[in-house]
Amino acid sequence: MRETSSKTNTMLNYSFLIVLGFIMVYPLIWLFASSFKTNADIFGSSKLLPTTYVWDSYALGWQGTGQYGFQDFFINTLILVVPTVIFTIISSVIVAYGFARFEFPLKTMLFSVMIATLMLPNASIMIPRYILFNKMNWLDTYLPFIIPAAFATGAFFVYMMIQFLRGLPRDLDEAATIDGCNSFTVLSRVLLPLCKPAIFSVGIFQFMWTWNDFFNSIIYISSVKKFTVSLGLRLSLDASSAVSWNQVLAMSVVSIVPCILLFFFAQKYFVEGISTTGLKG
């Protein structure tokens, strides 16, 4: 009797998860299916599958409507995202290592200030930050994204790394010190290999947020030749009076593929990193 009840509960749980998963994935399914529809099908029918298939939406969308195609926007986005992610990981690890493993004057106050920046609304620093970057002649470049990342301005990532490092036993540091390792060697040879899940989590978060960022990109980047994917999608809506929505949706599908692939290839480390950053040593 208990075995039958357990099987029933398991089936109900799986059924619920399948239905919930389908509801969450349905917008992506609709996005992909609509990239093969005509404008009339997209706005005039609620059917998932198109009545008339449009097979050239991806090819035409990739070519773009002006001097620059989506391959240029993808290259620009990679030029922006890759250094930003690398510098974010390096700076976050170094700062988190200092907070997690060392004692120094004003440590508590500095940590509190860092955490307080998480509560700071982005709108309150948008204008001062724009004025600062304008005086430094950084506008219409990728420096407003890359340079701050090199100085651990992402308090969320620093805090994530701190929590992970606190979960690693200090005995590892002491054993490495006895073997002749200095502070840098302890970090690079002992702690970094163990921090792989947290590092992957930081990289995935920063990659996805920077890749999908539209607001900051439209503020700091004004030249079309430097547009990112998100700005390129918006540009395709302004290029002509009659918008070919199947091409816009097709490029939307293409633009989310890197984030999806990155997540699925690194999901093992991502889940492990998220589940262990709350532990304390």
Report on this structure.
- Helix content is 73%, strand content 0%.
- The chain is mainly alpha-helical and 281 residues long.
- It has one domain: Orthogonal Bundle (MetI-like fold), CATH 1.10.3720.10.
- The longest helix has 33 residues, at 2-34.
- The protein starts with a helix and ends in a 5-residue tail after the last helix.
- The model has no long low-confidence stretch (mean pLDDT 87).
How helix-rich are the residues, as a percent range? Answer: over 70%
Strand content: under 5%
The CA-CA distance between the termini, in Å, is: 44 Å
Instruction: Give the name of the CATH architecture.
Output: Orthogonal Bundle
Q: Average pLDDT, to the nearest integer?
A: 87
Number of domains: 1
Tell me the major beta sheet: none
Low-confidence blocks of residues: none
**Which structural class do you get from the secondary structure elements?**
mainly alpha
Shape annotation: globular
Written as H for each helix and E for each strand, in order along the chain, the element string is HHHHHHHHHHHHHH
* Corresponding CATH superfamily: MetI-like
Give the number of DSSP strands: 0
Pfam families: BPD_transp_1
Keywords: Cell membrane, Membrane, Transmembrane, Transmembrane helix, Transport
Subcellular location: Cell membrane
Protein name: Sugar ABC transporter permease
